[in-house]
Amino acid sequence: MNSKQGTADSPDENFLYLTKAGIDTHQEPVVYMRSDCHVVRSEGFSAQGRVRVCIDGRSVIATLNIVTGELLSHQKAGLSDSAWKLLKAKEGDKATFKHALPVESMSFVRGKLYGKALGLEAARAIIGDISEARYSDIQLAAYVTACAGNNLNLDETIAITKAMVECGEHFDWGEGVQVLDKHCVGGLPGNRTTPIVVAIVAANGLMMPKTSSRAITSPAGTADTMETLTTVALSFERMREVVQEQGACLAWGGSVSLSPTDDIIIRVERALDLDSEGQLVASVISKKLAAGSTHVLIDIPVGPTAKVRSVELAQMLADLLVETGAALGMKVQILISDGSQPVGHGVGPALEARDVLAVLQRTKSAPEDLRERALTLAATMLEMGNACPPGRGLALATQTLDNGDAWKKFVAICEAQGGLKTPPVAPFQHSITAHKAGIVALFNNRVISRLASLAGAPNAVSAGIDLHVRLGDKVEKGQLLMTLHAEARGEMEYALDFYQSHLDVLHIEEEFV
């Protein structure tokens, strides 16, 4: 053993000096140690084990990765970016290490996997441990899998929702104040109605503190799209200031610690490409409750390749959302909409932002379907908020958009959040044309989302797809159908390889005379 490592009876035998490894493991804390360092040997640590890292009374549980090369010295342990941030470490900090105690709430997860229902105590234990970063990604995957599909009943969903709200911050806008919100369950590329709806609703004097998630399995979430236009990572107090000033905001929920476990769970759902109806409901309702919302409109698009594929499933989800909201004192209204094809022209953060701006600015290039969907949602919310009599919402929403008031409010919100930016344009573009003449008969929403993701979206914010045709359009052979956008040549080639083996992105039927 190197003499600098300490002796067998040294009280500091299990310490190492910390260094920032410069490795992004997203939200999973990871610690890196040499396989032959004295701490690994004396403690009997093994790869993928859970280790508690301690400095100055602070600690974090991290997953251990073993280094066998010369990346680290015997005296140092590296921390991933997330572990470094959670531990508030500084270069050269002296840290001690020990085996992490077993996460007791995993017994509830195992019970759920074997069919035992989750009560409030179990939900609080699981969600509490997730929020404290005690779960490894493997354990998180087990929890997500246990909840996947239609595997959570109403009581379990309510329990998880309560637990998720309790773990984070909570806005209180005052007794008797009506606070509006909206949400779409997803599965429909380009359906970026939220920024337009918020602008219309807030322009009519209603309160709408909107927080949104990043993408799960889609090429863009509202937070991803809005981040190409303004700052969305607002602190809790900054979000309160923006809402008090403008009556609304368009923020990323993860930055204000509203239901903070949601983004952690979403990350794993995205990696597994799994959705749980009950977890979806808990995610939606917990964030709305944490934002202080009293009235919520939820859009459920239904279509053969949407996330929700039948009216029956949509109604089941609607009932679960309404009942969970009611159990927690919130009025939830459901709109079941057409999910047969993408909305707007663009799919991907910057391309969707461009469409949003076009609708708000009333330009000739504005996608009519995005405009109409946004107006329908805004109309319902204006009536929910008593801004107009029943049946007059659409007229008021249309007037607010067409006279420029919605655009003025949107600019004001963006300026309050840090300024309005211009969405970037991808440096690489590739045209995809029709291989035969006919009628556009089907869009495969899932394959379109996958294609846009392979082009780089949402991480490459200007990547995605521009769609140039709609269902029912007559096309000629060689006509432009869509344009792929990418920020790197390799990602463009990757997406095109996928397209060549998935020509069912859209289906063209031959026209018979």
Give me some keywords for this one.
513 residues; alpha/beta; Barwin-like endoglucanases; Pyrimidine Nucleoside Phosphorylase, Chain A, domain 2; Aldehyde Oxidoreductase, domain 3; 3 domains; six-stranded mixed β-barrel; four-stranded antiparallel beta sheet; 18 helices; 39% helix; globular
List the helices and strands and how they pair.
Blueprint: E1 15-20, E2 30-34, H1 38-43, E3 50-55, E4 58-67, E5 76-79, H2 81-87, E6 94-99, H3 106-113, H4 120-131, H5 137-147, H6 154-166, E7 180-184, H7 194-203, E8 208-212, H8 222-227, H9 236-246, E9 248-252, H10 261-272, H11 277-290, E10 295-302, H12 311-327, E11 331-338, E12 346-347, H13 349-360, H14 368-384, H15 393-402, H16 405-417, E13 428-433, E14 438-443, H17 445-454, E15 464-467, E16 474-475, E17 480-486, H18 489-500, E18 506-509
Parallel strand pairs: 1-5, 2-4, 7-10, 8-9, 10-11
Antiparallel strand pairs: 1-6, 2-5, 3-4, 3-6, 12-15, 13-17, 14-16, 14-18, 15-17
Notes on the protein architecture:
The chain is of the alpha/beta class and 513 residues long. It has 3 domains: 3-99, Barwin-like endoglucanases; 180-252 and 288-417, Nucleoside phosphorylase/phosphoribosyltransferase catalytic domain (Pyrimidine Nucleoside Phosphorylase, Chain A, domain 2, 3-Layer(aba) Sandwich), CATH 3.40.1030.10; 428-509, Aldehyde Oxidoreductase, domain 3 (Alpha-Beta Complex), CATH 3.90.1170.30. It is built from 18 helices and 18 strands. It has helices spanning 38-43, 81-87, 106-113, 120-131, 137-147, 154-166, 194-203, 222-227, 236-246, 261-272, 277-290, 311-327, 349-360, 368-384, 393-402, 405-417, 445-454, 489-500, and strands at residues 15-20, 30-34, 50-55, 58-67, 76-79, 94-99, 180-184, 208-212, 248-252, 295-302, 331-338, 346-347, 428-433, 438-443, 464-467, 474-475, 480-486, 506-509. A 6-stranded mixed β-barrel has the order 1-5-2-4-3-6. Strands 12-15-17-13 form a 4-stranded antiparallel beta sheet. Helix 3 (106-113) runs parallel beside helix 5 (137-147), helix 7 (194-203) crosses helix 14 and helix 17 (445-454) runs antiparallel to helix 18. The protein is globular. The protein starts with 14 loop residues before the first strand and ends with a strand. The model is unreliable at 1-11 (pLDDT under 50).
